[in-house]
Amino acid sequence: MSPLWQQKKQKEFCLGNGILLSAYSPLGAVGTIWGSNRAMECEVLKEIAKLKGKTVPQVRTNKGNLKLDYLDLYLIHWHMSFKKRSEGDKEYVFLPMDLSSVWAAMEDSYPMDLSSVWAAMEDCQRLGLTKSVGLSNFTCKKVADILSIAKIPPVVNQVEMNPLWQQKNLKEFCHGNGILLSAYSPLGAAGTTWGSNRVMDCELLKEIANLKGKTVAQVCLRWAYEQGVSVIVKSFNAERMKQNLEIFDWSLSEDELKMIHQIPQRRCCRAEKFVSEDGPFKTLEELWDGEFDLQ
Ligand SMILES: NC(=O)c1ccc[n+]([C@@H]2O[C@H](COP(=O)([O-])OP(=O)(O)OC[C@H]3O[C@@H](n4cnc5c(N)ncnc54)[C@H](OP(=O)(O)O)[C@@H]3O)[C@@H](O)[C@H]2O)c1
Questions:
Q1: Where does the secretion signal sit in this chain (predicted)?
Q2: What is the DSSP string of 167-191?
Q3: What is the H or E stretch that residue 88 is in?
Q4: Segment 61-89, tens digit of pLDDT
Q5: Is the pTM value of this prediction over 0.85?
Q6: Which residue pairs, CB below 8 angstroms and at least 24 apart, start in 39-42?
Q7: How many A from CA of 7 to the centre of ligand 1?
Q8: How far apart are CA 45 and CA 59, in angstroms?
């Protein structure tokens, strides 16, 4: 969320339902973090900043834009960077409705300079732009790389986590280093470009759900909750949102947990499109440091 992607509808809907919107890439990725410098180079924002005698990042988190004085948490979304590229008036920027642009720009991607990017994240925290800083889609190895250079350690690593991709090693590693794992796609992200129906169609989960009089979604969310991670599930449906919150007054039995533990493990979101001859990651092995399939 940034002035160039203001999420008006999403914001109205969430605030109207008492849900605080948490923004990632509010600085438009600052060039090295994700996407392009588009927001940071926006003339309108620069003009406002000049008039107010402030820097662009300060202006971009103020009440006039995000209705926030600061962010609670600011994450590095992915561990790769993109050169700025424009053709005519088209710039390559990661936006959910235009995924083709990010794939098209793979030859412009390059390994993230973790030292300088993490130093910039730490500056955001020191400047009070964010209360905390963290990571997303980082493997054990990449978290360790950050820890080896960090003056301010990350507090969160937001990654795919569900019964079909349980992230046992990463959870142990992160929690052992004081980093909370945050589970995205806890239902396997059915219906998105990055997910599949595999979680919601899993026969074992259906069996457990039937026996307990719960839905598969509730079993997945309860399972994630019992792992001691934070959970981000998405629904635009009021009934399903309610259902997704009804997981706190019951629990999974030891036997059910054991059965879930034995489900063959495979990432749903493998991000194969980030693997490219022209990009920094030539194989899935390189992209995920081997953490993508445990069958
Ligand atoms: N950091 C990252 O790289 C990253 C990557 C992926 C996702 N995320 C974030 O993680 C959050 C959640 O992940 P996600 O959207 O990928 O996957 P998800 O929450 O696992 O799945 C969302 C899908 O499940 C459906 N759904 C929700 N509740 C349901 C229920 N009770 N029964 C049946 N279907 C249900 C939703 O449809 P309806 O809306 O129709 O209910 C939607 O199609 C999102 O906010 C996303 O932005 C972050």
A1: none
A2: -HHHHHHHHHTT-EEEEESTT--TT
A3: none
A4: 544 456 677 888 989 988 887 766 666 66
A5: no
A6: 39/2, 39/3, 39/4, 42/3, 42/4
A7: 17
A8: 8
Rounded to 10 degrees, the C-alpha dihedral 137/142/145/147 comes to 40
Neighbouring CB atoms inside 10 A of 174's CB total: 23
- Of the candidates 181, 155, 146, 186, which has an alpha carbon nearest to the alpha carbon of residue 269? 186
Give the C-alpha separation, 189 to 195, whole Å: 4
Question: CA torsion angle for 7, 113, 165, 272 (degrees, to 10)?
Answer: 80
For residue 98, give the H/E element and its range. none
- Coil vs helix vs strand at 134: strand
Q: Delimit the domains of the chain by residue range.
A: 8-288
d(CA 280, CA 190) in angstroms, rounded, equals 28
The pLDDT tens digits of the residues spanning 11-66 come to 777 777 777 666 665 554 433 344 445 556 666 666 666 665 655 555 455 444 56
Q: Which fold has domain 8-288?
A: TIM Barrel (3.20.20)
Angle of helix 114-126 versus helix 140-149 axis, rounded to 10: 60
Number of neighbouring beta carbons within 10 Å of residue 232: 14
Q: How far is the CA of 232 from the centre of ligand 1 (A)?
A: 8
Specify the ligand 1 atom closest to the Cα of 136: 1
**Whole-angstrom Cα distance, residue 54 to residue 128?**
14
Report CA-CA distances (Å) from 169 to 139, 173, 223, 250: 10, 6, 16, 26
Lookup result for tokens 């050169």: 83
- Pocket around ligand 1 at a 6 A CB cut-off: 77, 136-137, 158, 184-192, 194-195, 215, 217, 232-237, 240, 243-244
